[in-house]
Every structure is written in C-alpha cells, then in structure tokens.
Amino acid sequence: MTFNPRVRGSAYLPFVHFMERLGVPYQRAMDRTIIPALVLEDQEALVPVYLAHSFVESCARNIGLPDFGFIAGREARIEDLGAFGRSVVRSLTLHDALGKIHLRLKRAGDVSPTT
User: Fold this and answer.
1) Which of 8, 12, 39, 64 has its CA 20 to 30 A from that of 25?
2) Does 107 share its domain with 60?
C-alpha cells in the first residue's frame, strides 16, 4: 500500500487569495496540478500534499517570486485556514488560542509532548 499524505485544502487557500489580490490567474496552475475545484467550494476537502505543493511551486514560478511562500504567508490571515483558523479566532483568550494551536500541532506530530 502506498502512503499518500493529504492536507486540508484550507491550508493552501492563503496562496490562492494572495494570487487573487495580485490579479494573477491561478486556475491554470490548479488544473495542471489536478487540485479539484471543489477545494474552493469545500475548504475542508482533503488534497494530496504533493499536488498542493506542486500548485504552490507552479504559482511561484508563474509570478517569478522565489520567496512566494514567505510573502503569501506574511499576508495571510488566520481565518483563511478554514475551520481551524475560525476556531482560533473565536478564542476568548490568548491562552485558549495557543492551546488550540498546540493541540493541533501535537495531533499532527509536529510538537513533542511537554514534560
């Protein structure tokens, strides 16, 4: 069985929104990387990571920005990250928001348990 990691489409929507703000067409890059258009309709849809990364790489090449990811990330809003972002924004305190972020990263295996 082949391991095919997937990610929520909402993780890549900040790149789409950045391209829209620049007025750069991105649909062709989406078509070439076979990211389903449904990601634009259902932000929580699962997309293979390699296709999503290929989309970002294609966008960076099209606009000629080697630091495309950094620039798009700097302008991204947490709300653009789908249900996760909305959950963090609804936090009543900074402690609550950081707790949600830590929990999500811990579930993804990106943070070692604290002692």
Assistant:
1) 8
2) no
41 and 90 co-located in one domain? no
Count: domains in the chain: 2
Residue type, 70: F
Can you tell me which residue has the tokens 């950081």?
A: 98
Contact (Cβ atoms closer than 8 angstroms) between residue 59 and residue 68: yes
Q: What is the pLDDT of residues 9-50, one digit of tens each?
A: 888 888 888 888 888 777 766 666 556 555 667 778 788 888
pLDDT surpasses 50 at 55 = yes
CB contact at 8 A, 46 and 4: no
**Structural domain of residue 103, as residue ranges?**
79-115
d(CA 108, CA 88) in angstroms, rounded, equals 16
Are 100 and 85 found together in one domain? yes
Higher per-residue confidence, 99 vs 44: 99
Q: Do 55 and 29 touch, CB atoms closer than 8 A? A: yes
Handedness of CA 63, 65, 66, 67 (dihedral sign): negative
